[in-house]
Design goal:
This protein has about 270 residues and is mainly alpha-helical. The protein contains 13 helices and no strands. The protein has helices at about 5-20, 25-40, 40-55, 60, 65-75, 85-95, 100-125, 130-145, 150-170, 175-190, 200-210, 215-250, 255-265. Helix 2 (about 25-40) packs parallel to helix 7 (about 100-125), helix 3 (about 40-55) packs across helix 11 (about 200-210) and helix 9 runs antiparallel to helix 10. The longest helix has about 35 residues, at about 215-250. Mean pLDDT is about 90; it is low at about 260-265.
């Protein structure tokens, strides 16, 4: 059985991945972000399709929601909320990377949303789903508008926390099976906990927008803005800063370290 990676080793992997992402040209990031926006939309469709067959959004339907995240993360597409950890970890090592990180965020976020919008338009105008499935998608979207700005933002903090943890745990994993397990379990908690994710939820909303069921400004102010802000807070502060801090803080000895050193000397 392979030994677990230390927190320092995981952070090194995260930083290396972040450097690779920051070195990518904007065109490549845009195409990858657009693909992620398209592909993550399959999660909401899968949940609604299974819910239509099983009598509502219950445990069975929620078990299929992670498919979108699995496609995106294992397929190495650029998802905005994943980027609240890898490039931010690079910035924590050198602050002069901030402008490049903001470039990456802007490009990936914009094209994630565009991908979700194109998917939503295709579903709404293409008449590809069963009416019951379509209705459940609209219900899921409009239900999120009932939360209000601050509740939506707080739910998004937890949602962003979970998705950033996916990136951390993928970096911690030594094999694909472990990566699938962690992505699946953490993604499952998003619908199970009634949490919100700015890109995955956007596909549901844009289907409603193009179907004439949801006003665009309600989507923008009632979902996209609060959810994006919450996802950033959850990813940056509850995953990246905490995990970076535990590694960086371990480099310096505290007064208690002398007791450990004495015990080690006696053993030797």
């Amino acid at each position: 059985m392979a030994a677990l990676k230390s927190a320092g080793e995981i952070l090194e992997t995260v930083i290396e991945e972040g450097r690779e992402e920051l070195e990518r040209a904007s065109m490549g990031l845009a195409v990858s972000g657009f693909a992620a926006g398209l592909n993550i939309s399959f999660g909401g469709v899968a949940l609604a399709a299974v819910a239509a067959m099983t009598g509502g959004v219950g445990l069975t339907a929620m078990l299929f929601y992670p498919v979108g995240f699995l496609i995106v993360i294992l397929g190495q597409s650029q998802l905005f909320t994943e980027n609240t950890i890898t490039p931010v970890a690079v910035v924590l090592t050198r602050l002069n990377n901030i402008p490049n990180m903001l470039r990456l965020w802007a490009v990936v976020f914009l094209f994630n949303v565009l991908g979700a919008m194109v998917f939503g338009a295709a579903i709404a105008y293409g008449d590809m789903l069963q009416p019951t499935t379509f209705d459940i998608i609209i219900e899921e979207a409009t239900g999120k508008l009932d939360y209000g700005f601050w509740i939506t933002a707080l739910k998004a903090v937890l949602g962003g926390w979970l998705v950033a943890l996916m990136a951390w745990m993928v970096a911690a994993s030594r094999d694909t099976i472990s990566q699938v397990f962690f992505v699946y379990m953490l993604a499952f908690l998003v619908p199970a906990g009634g949490l919100t994710h700015c890109i995955a939820g956007s596909s549901e909303f844009t289907i409603g927008i193009f179907a004439g069921e949801i006003p665009f400004l309600e989507y923008l102010g009632g979902f996209l803005i609060p959810t994006t802000l919450g996802n950033i807070v959850g990813g940056v502060f509850l995953v990246t800063l905490l995990n970076y801090g535990q590694v960086a803080g371990s480099d310096k000895k505290t007064p208690l370290s002398e007791y450990t050193d004495e015990d080690r000397s006696e053993e030797e």
